[in-house]
Amino acid sequence: MDLANLTNQVITVDGFVWQPFFMPTVLVLVGLLISIRTGLIQIRRFPIAVRTTLQGAFQKKSSKEGTIKPFQALSTALAATVGNGNIGGVATAITVGGPGAIFWMWVCAAVGMATKYAEAVLAVHYRVTRETGELASGPMYYITRGIPNQALGKVLAYAFAFFGMAAALFGTGNMAQSNTIADSFVLAAKSIFNLEVSVWVPSLLITTCVGLVLLGGIKRIAAVAEMIVPTMIVIYVTAALYYVVMNFGQLPGVFSLIISSAFSPAAAIGGFIGVGVKQAIATGMSRGVLSNEAGLGSAPIAHGIADVDHPVEQGLVGVFEVFVDTILVCSMTAFIILSSGLWTDPAFQNASGSLTAAAMNTTIPGAALLIATCSFFFGFSTLIGWAYYGEKCFEFLFGSGGIKAYKAVFTMLVLVGGIIPVPLVWAVGTLLNGFMAFPNLIGLMFLVGTVSKLTKQFFAKDSV
Length: 464
Fold this sequence. Notes:
By secondary structure, the chain is mainly alpha-helical.
């Protein structure tokens, strides 16, 4: 198989799906519609979102109905979102779309907080109990149960479930994660210990870890996510903050570069070939969705089974999730890469996590090892979160009988992802994200009235 030719073909189709007047426009319009109908929920109610999330972090009891605690739902969702999209995804966004891509990631997050809110609200409101006794939720359920036209709802729901399963197996929820882990691990071994390590070593390690966790189902996934996610975010953000403080003088220049590149073509510099505004928009939006998953429809699969008294409570947790992922973590990664100047180095034009590691290493000696460690845990948590998402999509399509086979295939593909070329993995991932998001976004447009009604009901009741 000619991987170079296959990569070019996938990138061509991916470029069409993510051209500014297709998926990015749909994402922004749906996010704006939800923002308007909910009274700018992501801005006006953000302090309440923070408070609700923190209260959920200390909740000890589970209700009769919920499968997992609200904070476990957040942790599982963050496990799938705060991952190597924040390390490798930001790096590829800059090398492919230029500094301006980061601005469009912010735009994606600004409206995405409202979109994620709506997804979580609908997921709780329309969740069901499967024949296994477990709760099940996500776009496939709120689309089929919420859209009046049953035929349209069924088509959209099955399309979402199919592409959701494909994204979990072949996309950013699986192979892109193991790819970035292997890339960062190999760089750390070379730069710190001067060892040439095969990509097979980290690939086999992460595959084994994922397989062991998946044997325990959602309870184990949620428990592991609740333990790992807050810790890894604190470690990465602390290191990133140290880098920002040490290079604070460059902050105005980096912001200026991001803003100017968002609205005018970025010139070729060094190994960076230069891009136009359309490329910046397409890359920023696609990597933004890759990172925070707002509009993708994946996170509501976890949010929808949370132990909450009202759907809006979990919706507010979804707002906080996008803020942490993109506004906080992705922005720090972007500053590290852009201030280092390595994004123009020809050696890093096809890199992902290794670019972030090398950039941080310019100020923090041994940072390559830190990034490799964060990449491992970021990727590990994302893999187990997405394994659950794909499992629920598989279950919706085929029932519960083949779940063990699905888990086995998922685990094998983790290994495959670690050893194939970076550009192909990320192109396949963002392409499948687009296919997955489209039926979900259509569903959200039909159900925005329900979100608005539930929002008014909640805040009127509590007089918040």
